[in-house]
Structure of Helix-turn-helix domain-containing protein:
Amino acid sequence: MVTQSEGPVLFGSPYQADCPARRILDRIGDRWTVLVVGVLADGEARFSQLSRRIEGVSKKMLTQTLRGLERDGLVRRTVYPEVPVRVVYALTDAGRTLCEPLRALQEWAIAHLGDVAASQEVYDRAN
């Protein structure tokens, strides 16, 4: 990574260990991130709604994923001072730009599920 006197320059190659792009790829390539963004693509949601829609995610992992996405500027957390307090999550403008590429990955996974399963079976029988 190249640095300047006022701080790091955020460009480089994600194939280098210290490249900031690698951390972003780690975030958006995470399975829970893909699913959270997929749910929030439909509009804002409360924690409990996300938890119900994303089967298998623990509360701890959902919390960590949402905090990471919020920190990265991809999700906005809004607290409404009501009784009881209402908290909703929504994609930011930057988060919305992820919807199309992540949807393409989901569609690819669904379209190729049979081929991948067949390849896994052949591999497992041979090994």
About this structure: The beta strands are 3-4, 7-8, 75-80, 86-91.
